Amino acid sequence: MFPDKAPVQNITDSTIKQVTQVLPAKKIKTGYRQVPVECMPGELKSKNMSSVATLQHADVHGAHDAHHEHHHHETFITKYVFSQDHKMIAKQFLITGIIWAIIGGLFSVIFRLQLGYPDSTFPWLEDLLGHWAAGGKLKPEFYYALVTMHGTILVFFVLTAGLSGTFANFLIPLQIGARDMASPFLNMLSYWFFFLASIIMFSSLFVQTGPASGGWTIYPPLSALGEASSGSIIGMDLWLVSMAMFIISSLLGGLNYITTILNMRTKGMSMTRLPLTIWALFFTAVLGVLSFPVLLSGAILLLFDRNLGTSFFLSDIVIAGKILPNEGGSAILFQHLFWFLGHPEVYIILLPAMGMSSEIISVNSRKPIFGYMAMVGSVFAIAILAFLVWAHHMFVTGLNPFLGSVFVLLTLLIAVPSAIKVFNWLTTLWRANIRFTPGMLFAIGFVSLFISGGLTGIFLGNSALDLHLHDTYFVVAHFHIVMGVASFFGMFAGVYHWFPKMFGRYLNNTMAYIHFWITIIGSYLIFWPMHYEGLAGMPRRYYDYSGWSSFNMFAGLNEFISFVSMIVFAAQLLFVFNFFYSIFKGRKVTELNPWGANTLEWTTPIRPGHGNWPGEIPEVHRGAYDYAKDGKEFIPQDVPVGEDESKH
Amino acid sequence: MSTTAIPTNTKWWNGGRSPFNASYGKVMMWYFLMSDAFTFGAFLISYGTIRFSVNHWADPNEVFNAFPFAGHANLPLAFVSLMTFILIFSSVTMVLAVHEGHKMNRKGVEKYMILTILGGLAFLGCQAWEWTHMITGDHAVLVNGEIEKWGTTVTKNPWGPHVMHEGQMVSTPGPIAFGGYFFGITGFHGFHVFSGVIINLVMLIKTRMGHFDQRGHYEMIEKAGLYWHFVDLVWVFVFLCFYLV
Fold this sequence. Notes:
Chain A is an all-alpha fold.
């Protein structure tokens, strides 16, 4: 042990530490509850000073000086660019994620044009894409590039970095009562590695031979050999390097999230008092920290196969009449490495949405979440099972049928914790006094989508059924609903709910309601019909179905799906407009706790500065879900338990 | 460091303190090591999968039998034993450095950090020699009825089954995957050792500049030590997988 090592408490880097050090040990009675509107910590202190004469002058002055000094050091660069404030980093992740979502969404609209209108030409496509759409018709090579990049961008850059990067950064310190992440510096690096990954991935869109086009799962040998596809030339190398950067970013972020949640909870915030958002983000981080390195290994080996002539994934290949010398590798091995990440990745995307929806549903139902411990336990069970089911993506690879049956069992077991969560959401909503805020609508939409998409997962988890359904539109429909759209709904719910905390303004409600209704109806209209197509055997990833008489009957349906997808995309642009417009022009937040929520982030000033609480960090006395208790509408976590208070 | 004294009756997990009584940096290092263990685990499991899916694998006694300045003497696994000894010994000096840190003895920390760094550099030097020896080696190998001289690279190696050719036993081309996995995994481990040496160098410089004395503790040395021991532990598995079985 170190000589001076008192039990370590809430140590953070640099400035934050200074602030905590100089703060008085005694309570400042002016506390965080009567914080004047729109004020930074520094201002607050000076205002308080004049009004509260009995305060220990030296102490408060110290705190004031610390803040004062701090603000003087803050330049545009340190505040908005290389910021170490978790709230700013969260916004950076969110806005980068939004930009990627527009790009990824636009790609899907473009390839849906090809699928919905295979006989038409769109001259404006040539203006946009150049030789990839010569004569206004998408080239097959670029169709595959678009599909690949759509998947990559939305799975990794939007729903991993954009979703958990945003809300883990924003909510963890605020909801557990910490001044910042454990290591604000590594947190900043996490964003900038993500930014670097983004730049590399974005640049791959502009190389002559096109971006990666072997599907987001980049199976070798297609992805390993430049001769196999033009997207497997330089585009694939850029994809792999970009993902390596992305994995570093995710690792740095994940380590911070885990450590912060474990080490830096405020006094009284025991693990079982954590809001469910934090539990979800915790397990998300654990999944990321343990599964992404396996993808890193696979990516490194694939890079070697591509550039050094090794034979990790290649064997006995004849390409363009040429026999390759590679021998002894296994393409299936890559699939195992990929899906060992790939399956947990599904939950990395989904868990934050689950956590945020739980929180938002409880707040807006004005009821405690039903079965808090069951919710925590089921997230834990999902996190464990996530590591044990990866081979259900590989039932048709020639996997030993007995091994397949084990994976079927483990896969179907996930239905149990998932069902527990669904029933708990429904029972929370049951007979509740529901406030249909935009955030709440999206959270309820999430539950709806999770049920619809989860049920088809039970179909696909059966290896016998999967033989028929594998690689058909049924799969596309399943994962888009349960993981894609559902997670987007969780994300939208989070944005609508915490936007007031992020920017001190509200999003416009009218635009929000239009956004919600178009998106939920449109999503079902897009993906529901795909189940029929998939059951009929229509394979995914085909460029043109018009040559198959079996699928001709779906021409009209495909056109319909494409048409709706354009409307839904337009609705997302409305959201983007609402988002940026409201940052500057939205209705101002005038009360500390606009939703009447219990969690700690609403005890900070309306626009919290770096360090979050101007005074002491509040102490926590109860769980996060004391709604409708003892005749009170809600009791925030920092309110001490009254003497005559009933047990919940 | 901490602003409020913690009542002794506070429960570990109730917030307001680290449940492990460890700083965030140490907790973070442990989780990083878990993550890194998965990277190495993926490599080694891939290696195992491929190795047991082919009929023949290189015999380590045959591949690793050279020793610097020993000419063509047949000394199976002697050199790699020396390498392993060096690395494990550098872990011992690391432990001693951490121990001196606990005693706030700057001179002692400096001494043992230097020894640890030297151990790391020696290991890297040994690995460089071994790689060079393997790549530039020339072993008789029977290719299409002709004898060729091959070294061990990621695309070919001479460590296949032996066959009779013109009255003597000669080797045939070996499993291609051998070179890829050997250089890939030992290289990835070597990269970790290299990073560890850099980290230790930074720690040494910070020690000499008195940063840890000012800070009042040598916890950074302890964190660097965690990483160093992990790299050492990984080597034990790499050693097991490539040299012993």
